[in-house]
Fold G-protein coupled receptors family 1 profile domain-containing protein.
Amino acid sequence: MSSTTTTTSDTELIVSWHEMSLQINCYFSIFLFVFGIIGNILNIFVLLQKSLRLNPCAWLFLISSFANIIVILSGLSTRIISNWTIDLTDTIGWLCRFRVFILYTSRTIATWLILLASIDRWLLSSLNAHYRKFSTLKEVQRGTILIMIFSIITYLPIFYCYEANLINTPLKCYSKTILCRIFIDQSYICVTILFPLILMFLFGFMTMSNVRKSKYRVQSPLLSRINCHDHRQRHFKLIDRHLLIMLLVQISFLALLTLPQAIQQIYSTITRNQIKTSLQI
């Protein structure tokens, strides 16, 4: 009797959780889609201003905004559509592989561009004039090309590993073998989330350290008088300061939103061979 009661209770809990997850996926996905697209489009309009076009950090934010729009379109659009009709990426193999490849590649590009922006801020804030010379639009454009090539090469195995119409997997469009799942998941955890985040925080702290040192360095009366008369220089310093604040906020939100996903994927990989109940992930 007690066993029957427990089973019934578990079934009801599973059903309620399933219904709740469907509602969250439906409405929260729409919320993220709308505000994500609008936010990134506004970013693009702001960053296309004449005063920001030659700023290396602003250029990286601009390309990152384009990449984020691709992430939202490839990641959330199919999830929203699946609430009302059949998701073709679940049933057509090439469409499944192409969508996942675009999603993972664009997300990696967006993340690494923010990392490159962190490095650029560190170079610009350095007291060493030789380092500051590397903070140029030409250098970040080269870095962007390398990031794109690196991201594409990293996730090329998706075209072999992913298949549609799979059963006994978390999603119908998923890795078809255990080895593929481990490789893709670990690549995503390390390359797209953990490694760039660690470097972002590292260069962020180094940048803040450089900013503090530079404040002490410019306290001489001569430099103060020069800076007071140089309105153009102060204007560009103000832009750089705002871009630094924007960068730190973006890094914080990126860590907040991606670390839980990395933890979940690590847990799934570690427990992949364990027999789980219906209430376990």
User: Anything to note?
Assistant: The longest strand covers residues 162-163. The chain has nine helices and two strands.
